[in-house]
Amino acid sequence: MSHFSQIRTKIRNLTSLQSALTDLGVDWKSGPSPVRGYQGATEAAEVVIEQPNGFDIGFRLNPETKDYELVADLQYWQQPLSVDGFVNQITQRYAFHTVLEATAQEGFQVAEQKTTEDGAIRLVVQRWA
Length: 129
Known about the structure:
26% helix, 7 strands, 36% strand
């Protein structure tokens, strides 16, 4: 019996997800690779985060929603943040990279970037005509 849980996200761009994980100092490997779970069970994922306890965290593409979902055996979660905290942190950095990519495609450059006391990121972009 599988103990894997799937947590939905709104993450659709693999490169931005990988950049977000790198920003947060998370060691990850590119897949498809197996996510290790309870009693040797595995699930394939495009991004795998190995944990010291031998149970992994992964992000795999849900073919129906086209979003990357987090897949892990949550009983063996071994991260400094809760699952929600982890997903929220990744989502914030993912959004940051998605905005940077979209604005760069439109010819904008970052003029100013600040992180506020509450952790929000404020970006000012500009484009010269």
